[in-house]
Each structure stands twice: as structure tokens, then as C-alpha cells.
Specification:
heterodimer, A: alpha+beta, four-stranded antiparallel β-sheet, two-stranded antiparallel ribbon, B: 2 domains, three-stranded antiparallel β-sheet
């Protein structure tokens, strides 16, 4: 690449996130829109770091009740039993389907936690102006984006268990309060990954000379 | 940098590096020279293939949402559920927000994706390609992001195995239809030439007349 203009921002250009077209903004402080598709244009996501922090913190707050509160309440002939996410994993393991227990453990416990840790790491390194392991951090961000959706697994498991096991008065299953918190963790971390501007990872190594050049 | 050079350049969505996309052979892709992000794909196969796949997906989607996913029988009682039925049961049990989320990720988002793809692929056959095709093209990836059929499928399988301890469970037609949809969605994505369509879309520049006054535009519609 030429040494004169490495990134679009350095060249004073804004890339449309919808259709990829490059535009040169007319002036400072004006709202810019893509001429081809009408999408709002920004050099970098507005307040990306603050928004991502807010969503990550909100998700972390929901993470505890999501794992402590029961996701399913099973009533069998009058006796009631509450199951947390880890309880569900233990049940699957105990009944002999350990591969499924592993899948649920990874999707429900490790992926949400891993996503939070990864996003905090990305936020901190970007804020500290880290210039190393850009490739690794970009790969980590892509991983967060790709696997994030899989933590919805337990919400679907709970939904279809509840929907199917309605054999009143013998046995019935009702959702517990944990489901909502769990769904909130998934949605909030997905929104956090979306709010984070991955181009910031590369900006410290090659600082913007002039946005409006 | 001259305007001509800019019109053939893109900025990497992951690292913002400016680069030109060379001609790509059918079935090939172009990756960012710095971070490896896929910048562009050149689909192989006939032009109408994505439309054919989208029509198939629309039919399969109707089947997936009207047929029972599974039948359960225990102690002489039987029960069956559809995708929407599962979400509705969550709603009835007092978890309205979770029910809405499940409905959104398993019905509205995939349905919206198929509907938008059908509309914009039909619109793309007209010349010039109307403005609303561009607007739909902007929104369609949001549906794609929140459509979680493959996650739902795995969730149903886990639920089935849990329930199988208590009752006899049979997979229904709906389950096979969901499986077909999971294969059809990526097939539409890889056969659909989104770059080519963008170059033919009518411009939306009426909305932002102050943004790029004449002379500062960096690309032309013929791209």
C-alpha cells in the first residue's frame, strides 16, 4: 500500500457501512449520508467506546442472576423443582448425554463469560492505545461476533421444554426468572459487539493525521 | 488521490485500510491485505439462482412455521408444538419478553430476511433498479444477524433429549423444514452478488444534498 494514505479516515474519506461506497464529507459538524444508499456516515462509530462499555456493564450485571436464578421450574405430581442453567448441565451429564452437557456448558456459561472478557480486553487495549497484536485482536473480535448468537441456545432449550412438557396435572414445566436475565445477557452482548468499532484496533498504530483532509 | 482511483477503491470494514479490489474469478473472494477480512466475493452460478433459492426458502418457511416441530406422547396423552407455539407458551407462562425475543429470532427475523430478499431480487430484475431496493439492501443484514434458526435447531434437539427421558418424542415435518432453511440461508448469501446489485441501484442522493456537493463525489453510478 502507499505510504501517503493508509486508511480511509486518513484520506478524509468515510466508507458506507451498508454499501461500501467511499464519500468525502462536505464539511465539519454536518451530518453525512451516503449518496448511493442514504446510510448515515461516520469516520468511526459515534461514542463507540462509551456505548460498548455501557452495554458490557449492563450485560455483566445481568450475568449473575442469569446463572443464580432458576431457568426452569418442573412440577411433578405436586412436587416442584427449580433448575438453574448449571443444574440443567448437571442433569444432562447425569443422564448420560455428556456431549450435550458440554455443548450447553460451552454455549450457556463459557460463551457469555468469554464474550464479556473479550470485549473488556478489546475496550481496555483500544483505550490504552495498544499497538501490538492487532491481528489477534481483530480475530478475537470476529470470534465474538460469530459465536455470540450461540449463547441463545439455553433460551430456546427452555422455550421448547416449556412448550412440550405440559401434561397437567401429571407434570408441567414453567420458565423461571433466570430466563429473562439470560436472554438479556445474550442481547446486550450482541449489541455491545455491534456498538464496538473494530477499526479502532488499528487506529493507534496509524493515528489519524487529519479527519477532514 | 484521484476520483477515478477512489471509485474503484474500498475501505476494509475491519481495519479501514484503503485498497482496490482486483477482478475476482467466479467463486473467488478478495481479502484485506492487512487484516484478512473478506472484502468481496464473486459468486459462481447462474444469475437467477439466488431468486430460485429465495422462492424455495419462502415455501419451506411456511411449512416450517405451520407444521408441528415434534410430537410428544406420554401416558396416553399427546402434545405437539410449532415454532410460534413455543414462543406463545413462554408468553402465557409470564415470560412475555423472552417469548417476544424467541418469536423475533426464530420467526420474524428469518421471515423478514426471506421477504426482503425476495422483494429486492425481484426489484433487481428491473432497469433501472428502483430506490427501494437499495433501502431494503441496507436493512437485510439486520434480519440476517438476528435470525437464529441454527441455534434454535440445536436448542430443540437438547430439549428433545431432555424430554425423551420422560416421554416418547417424534420429530415432525416442521423440524425437517427448519433443517432445510438452515441450509438455504447460506446458499442464498453465497450466490447473491451484492456488489453488482449496488452498482445498479438508483442513487438516494436527494436525501443528502449538502453532504457531497458536485465535484466532491468520489464514485459514479456506473461504478
Amino acid at each position: 500500500m502507499t505510504a501517503t494514505a493508509a486508511t480511509a479516515a486518513q484520506a478524509g474519506l468515510m466508507a458506507c457501512e451498508a454499501c461500501q461506497m467511499l464519500s468525502r464529507p462536505a464539511g465539519e459538524g454536518q451530518d453525512a449520508y451516503c449518496r448511493r444508499c442514504g446510510e448515515a456516515l461516520e469516520f468511526r462509530h459515534h461514542d463507540s467506546i462509551q456505548k460498548t462499555w455501557a452495554l458490557v456493564i449492563a450485560a455483566a450485571v445481568c450475568y449473575l442472576p442469569a446463572n443464580m436464578l432458576p431457568v426452569l421450574n418442573t412440577t411433578t405430581l405436586g412436587t416442584s423443582e427449580a433448575d438453574t442453567i448449571l443444574g440443567g448441565v448437571a442433569f444432562l451429564y447425569a443422564t448420560g448425554s455428556w456431549p450435550l452437557a458440554l455443548i450447553v456448558l460451552i454455549a450457556s456459561v463459557m460463551i457469555p463469560l468469554g464474550k464479556l472478557v473479550a470485549l473488556v480486553y478489546l475496550l481496555l487495549t483500544v483505550q490504552r492505545g495498544s499497538v501490538t497484536s492487532n491481528h489477534e485482536r481483530t480475530r478475537l473480535y470476529r470470534l465474538v461476533e460469530i459465536i455470540g448468537r450461540w449463547s441463545m441456545l439455553d433460551v430456546f432449550v427452555a422455550t421448547f421444554t416449556v412448550a412440550m412438557v405440559q401434561l397437567q396435572p401429571l407434570m408441567s414445566v414453567a420458565p423461571g426468572a433466570g430466563v429473562l436475565f439470560f436472554a438479556a445477557v445474550v442481547v446486550l452482548t450482541m449489541l455491545a459487539a455491534e456498538a464496538f468499532d473494530q477499526r479502532l484496533i488499528w487506529d493507534s498504530a496509524y493515528p489519524h493525521r487529519n479527519h477532514h483532509g | 488521490m484521484s476520483n477515478r482511483l477512489l471509485s474503484s477503491s474500498v475501505a476494509c470494514p475491519d481495519c479501514d485500510l484503503l485498497q482496490r479490489i482486483p477482478p475476482i474469478p467466479p467463486g473467488g473472494k478478495a481479502c484485506c491485505t492487512r487484516c484478512g477480512c473478506v472484502l468481496a466475493r464473486q459468486p459462481a452460478g447462474p444469475r437467477d439462482l439466488p431468486l430460485a433459492l429465495a422462492i424455495t426458502a419462502a415455501i419451506v418457511f411456511v411449512i416450517a412455521n405451520t407444521s408441528p416441530l415434534m410430537d410428544l406422547s406420554a401416558l396416553g396423552r399427546t402434545a405437539s408444538t410449532t415454532v410460534a407455539g413455543g414462543a406463545l407458551e413462554m408468553f402465557r407462562e409470564g415470560e412475555q419478553l423472552t417469548g417476544i425475543l424467541v418469536l423475533f429470532c426464530a420467526v420474524f427475523a428469518p421471515g423478514g430476511y426471506i421477504a426482503f430478499m425476495l422483494a429486492l431480487l425481484l426489484g433487481a430484475r428491473r432497469t433501472p433498479v428502483p430506490l427501494w431496493v437499495g433501502a431494503m439492501l441496507r436493512w437485510v443484514h439486520h434480519f440476517e444477524m438476528w435470525s437464529m434458526l441454527e441455534v434454535m435447531m440445536l436448542g430443540i434437539l437438547v430439549a428433545l433429549i431432555k424430554i425423551a427421558q420422560l416421554a416418547t418424542v417424534h420429530a415432525g415435518i416442521g423440524m425437517y423444514a427448519v433443517g432445510a432453511l438452515i441450509l438455504l440461508f447460506p446458499a442464498i448469501v453465497v450466490t447473491f452478488d451484492v456488489r453488482e446489485l449496488w452498482t445498479r441501484v438508483e442513487w438516494d442522493d436527494a436525501k443528502a444534498p449538502v453532504n457531497t456537493p458536485a465535484g466532491t463525489s468520489v464514485a459514479d453510478p456506473t461504478g
